[in-house]
Amino acid sequence: MVTVHREAGFRFVIFVDDHEPAHVHVSGDGNAKIVLRGANGQPEMARNDGFKAGDVRKALRIVAEQQGILLERWRELHG
């Protein structure tokens, strides 16, 4: 497990040897899994466990802003 970003009270983690599609796990006042590049090329929520709607929007916005860096980190960790 590698913390790849922290912002706005969220921690964004990529697990080593995790499965495709490329995604991050987000923790804060809940837990979520966000796919880095969904069907439309934008991040999309795969699972939300306890985040309020505003926190979901905020986490998705952060992942969208950091998408290039997060995808690069995914490739570094998974080849």
Index terms:
79 residues; alpha+beta; 5-stranded antiparallel sheet; 5 strands; 34% strand; DUF4160; DUF4160 domain-containing protein
Would you write up a description of this structure?
The structure is a single chain. 32% of the residues lie in helices and 34% in strands. It has a 5-stranded antiparallel sheet, with helices on one face. Strand 3 and strand 4 form a beta hairpin.
Task: Please specify the SSE layout and strand pairing.
Blueprint: E1 2-7, E2 10-14, E3 23-27, E4 31-35, E5 44-49, H1 53-65, H2 67-78
Antiparallel strand pairs: 1-2, 2-3, 3-4, 4-5
Helix content: 25-40%
Number of helices: 2
Stretches where pLDDT is under 50 for at least 5 consecutive residues are: none
Whole-angstrom Rg: 11 Å
Summarize the helix and strand pattern as letters. Answer: EEEEEHH
How large a portion of the residues is in β-strands, by DSSP E?
Answer: 25-35%
Helix/sheet category: alpha+beta
Count of structural domains: 1
Let me know the number of strands. 5
The largest sheet, given as strand count, sense and whether it forms a barrel, is: 5 strands, antiparallel
Strand order of the largest sheet: 1-2-3-4-5
Mean pLDDT: 97
Question: What overall form do the CA principal axes indicate?
Answer: globular
First-residue to last-residue Cα separation: 16 Å
